[in-house]
Amino acid sequence: MRSVEIDYSNPFLKVDEDYILIMPSYDDEITDIISDFIDYEDNLKHLVGVVGSGNINFGKDGYCFNAVEISKKYNKPLIFRFEFTGTDRDVTDFKEEVHKVEVTRATKES
User: Fold this and answer.
1) Residues 6+ apart with CB under 8 A from 79
2) pLDDT tens digits, residue range 14-36?
3) Bridge partners of 10?
4) What are phi and psi of 12, to 5 degrees?
5) What does 5-26 look like in DSSP terms, one character per residue?
6) What are the residue ranges of helices labelled H in 1-110?
7) C-alpha atoms less than 13 angstroms from C-alpha of 39 in its C-beta half-sphere
8) Does residue 78 surpass a pLDDT of 80?
9) Is the CB of residue 51 less than 8 Å from the CB of residue 94?
């Protein structure tokens, strides 16, 4: 899958195609940076859903809290969550979830 990394020092990158945002949960500041990216130009229009990585040791409320917050703020689905960098199984599950999103979107567009 093609990917683009958001530069934290300059998150104002224009995206001209639908995308799924994958974001870590390691500090509160990242939510503001990601919001700057989403709010830039037409980026919100292309946001399909959110995926979060986190640490289960942060507890239920802290696990992937940034992704949960962004999902709610922009009313976009939280598609998937995984711990740390994920496992091989997480990669497989993630691809399945993305495929489901693609199928659902294609069905709605027909």
Assistant:
1) 20, 49, 50, 51, 97, 98, 101
2) 999 999 999 988 777 889 999 99
3) none
4) -85, 70
5) ---TT-------S-EEEEEE-S
6) 29-39, 43-46, 59-62, 65-73, 88-109
7) 8
8) yes
9) yes
Match 């958001």 to its residue by tokens: 6
CA angle, residues 80, 29, 22, in degrees to nearest 5: 20
Terminal alpha carbon distance of the chain? 24
b/e map 43-65, b = 16+ CB within 10 Å: beeebbbbbbbbeeeeeeeebbb
* pLDDT for the residue 69: 94
**Is it the case that residue 42 has pLDDT exceeding 70?**
yes
Tokens describing residue 56: 């289960």
Give me the amino acid identity at 19: Y
Beta bridge partners of 53: 24, 82
Tokens representing residue 93 in the block = 């599950």
- Name the residue with tokens 């994958």: 22
DSSP-derived letter for residue 56 is G
- The C-alpha atoms of residue 71 and residue 75 are separated, in whole angstroms, by 6
Rounded to two decimals, the pTM is 0.85
